[in-house]
From TrEMBL:
Keyword check for Ribonucleoprotein: no
Keyword field contains Mitochondrion: no
Reaction(s) this enzyme catalyzes, per UniProt: ATP + protein L-histidine = ADP + protein N-phospho-L-histidine
Lineage: Bacteria, Bacillati, Actinomycetota, Actinomycetes, Micrococcales
Organism: Terrabacter terrigena
Subcellular localization, as worded in the UniProt entry: Cell membrane
Matches recorded under InterPro entries: HATPase_C_sf, HATPase_dom, His_kinase_dom, PAS, PAS-like_dom_sf, PAS_4, sCache_3, Sensor-like_sf
Protein name according to UniProt: histidine kinase
Xref: Gene3D superfamilies: Histidine kinase-like ATPase, C-terminal domain (3.30.565.10), PAS domain (3.30.450.20)
Length: 539
């Protein structure tokens, strides 16, 4: 049962509106057709009357009779015969003074004609609707001429009731045509309403409006990026946050995802049929967490929906936490080593080997101070100095020889401090893991080295190791998100460090190269000069 019109579904309202419009159109069409038929009937009556009148006016016998002594006796039978044969309602022959000589009602003969004759007397034709002795009629008046002189007038008319009768005789056909048009219009309207009902799921106008308003508000308010793709891999929806995170063009909606300029791994993840959960992706400027799954409606697969979260700042904090944790581990290791050395020195003194105790302490101090002096003398950036010392301590604890090449130099303000820490920290971590995770019998000594210098307009830094190097074909894959020669670590951070390095170097306008095996050498070139922008921590 239908409720108030405001609660009808959109399909119901459309159906009702189209029915009303169809009824009005059909009614207007019938009325127009009736009026047109009536007008056509009037015109046909006038045309028929005019033809009869002109034919009579040109008849020689009529011209002779009107000039005879008794026109009525000669013309009345003739006029009645013409009236009957032409199916008109009156044929009147009159004098120039409009005195009737013939009439269907003999009592009207000799009386004055009711109507206009001035134009006919002037040689023209009178066409008019006029009410005479027989009632309203469509009539014509034409002159009867003899050698160019008007000697009489002929009027032929058809009553309006007769014209209306012929029009009414056409009315059943018009009504039948109107009914057929209404039925066809109703069927078309029903089909359209059914299609609209299916497309709008039977929702009403208010429900659709509220759904759109809330939908639009949520899309603009949600802080996560939201993307919907169809089964053909085309972008169907992207909210404001998704457009910002991915730097989408204004005309992105409706285009294939592959044509939006996204990184290849991210584009593949947005178009495949797999389900992705908390997957890290690196773009030109961000680290994003992707979740993606199928979008279904009543069991039918419509496409896929994906959410994106910006993890750039979190990755920076995580990197800083890793640096702090590494420094803490280095301090703990130094404290442990210092305690061991102190016990050794005290024991030597207690055993009476004072000279050996002094030599042992001096050697240890010289080794530690030599590395510290080399780092401090080579690097003008305090944060980078701290990273190198921390990594040196970590390498020492892991039994890896970490060295600074002689003559190494890194100037201040080449790049934002956070970016420098990201690059150096990740590269050294990768090198330490490469030599520390080797498979096979342990080697007597494993090396990782750091070098930096200024060449032309670029500051160059290199991190080298004597590990197994990259696997065949690994150079091209080394900086792809998720690539790693190590097992997956906690928090899913394996395989993202080198990707962060690549992203950071690209954003700073530099270049990155990899050489090896044997070993692996990562070379980074950055333009010399102050660079503004926020970096991301290493992972």
């Amino acid at each position: 049962m239908l409720g108030a019109p405001g609660r009808w579904s959109v399909a119901g309202q459309t159906f009702a509106l189209q029915v009303i419009v169809a009824v009005l159109v059909v009614a207007a069409g019938l009325a127009g057709a009736f009026v047109q038929a009536q007008r056509a009937g009037d015109q046909e009556a006038l045309a028929r009357a005019l033809a009869v009148a002109r034919t009579m006016a040109a008849t020689p016998d009529l011209i002779a009779a009107v000039q005879g002594p008794d026109p009525t006796a000669a013309l009345q039978p003739y006029a009645m015969r013409v009236q009957q044969e032409s199916q008109t309602d009156f044929v009147v022959v009159m004098s120039r003074d409009a005195i009737r000589w013939t009439h269907p009602d003999p009592t009207q003969i000799g009386k004055r004609f009711i109507g206009h004759t001035e134009a006919a007397l002037a040689g023209g034709v009178v066409e008019e609707d006029y009410t005479g002795t027989l009632g309203p009629s469509a009539r014509v008046v034409v002159p009867v001429t003899d050698r160019g002189r008007v000697v009489a007038l002929v009027s032929v008319g058809i009553r309006k009731s007769a014209v209306g009768g012929r029009v009414r005789a056409q009315l059943p056909g018009l009504l039948l045509a109107g009914v057929v048009a209404a039925v066809l219009s109703g069927l078309g309207t029903a089909l359209v309403a059914r299609r609209i009902r299916r497309q709008t799921h039977g929702l009403g106008e208010q429900q659709l409006r509220e759904m759109y308003e809330y939908y639009d508000a949520v899309l603009h308010a949600v802080t996560e990026g939201l993307i919907i793709t169809d089964l053909d891999g085309r972008l169907r929806l992207a909210n404001d946050e998704a457009a910002r995170l991915l730097s989408l063009p204004a005309d992105a909606v409706g285009r294939p995802v592959a044509e939006l300029g996204l990184a290849a791994p991210l584009a593949a993840a947005l178009t495949d049929d797999a389900t992705h959960e908390d997957e890290l992706h690196v773009t030109a400027a961000r680290v994003l967490v992707l979740n993606r799954g199928p979008a279904r409606w009543k069991g039918r697969l419509l496409g896929h929906v994906a959410t994106l979260r910006d993890r750039t700042d979190l990755e920076a904090l995580t990197g800083e936490l890793d640096s702090a944790r590494g420094l803490t581990e280095a301090l703990r290791s130094q404290a442990h080593e210092s305690a061991n050395r102190l016990h050794t020195i005290v024991s030597l003194i207690e055993l009476g080997h004072t000279d050996r105790a002094v030599a042992f302490a001096t050697d240890e101090l010289q080794v530690s101070q030599l590395l510290t002096d080399r780092v401090v003398g080579s690097v003008d950036e305090p944060a980078l100095t701290a990273v190198l010392l921390g990594k040196a301590a970590e390498a020492h604890e892991r039994g890896i020889a970490f060295g600074i090449e002689p003559g190494a130099h890194w100037p201040r303000d080449v790049a934002p401090t956070r970016d420098v820490v990201t690059i150096v920290g990740n590269l050294i971590d990768n090198a330490l893991d490469a030599v520390g995770g080797e498979v096979g019998p342990p080697r007597p000594e494993r090396h990782v080295s750091f070098d930096s210098r200024v060449e032309d307009a670029y500051a160059v830094l290199e991190v080298s190791d004597d590990g197994p190097g990259l696997p065949p074909g690994g150079v091209e894959e080394a900086f792809r998100r998720g690539w790693s020669t190590k097992d997956q670590g906690s928090a899913g951070r394996r395989g993202i460090g080198l990707a962060l390095v690549s992203q950071t170097v690209e954003r700073l306008g530099g270049t990155l190269e990899v050489h090896g095996p044997p070993g692996a050498t990562f070379t980074v070139r950055l333009p010399v000069g102050p660079v503004t922008g926020d970096g991301v921590g290493h992972g």
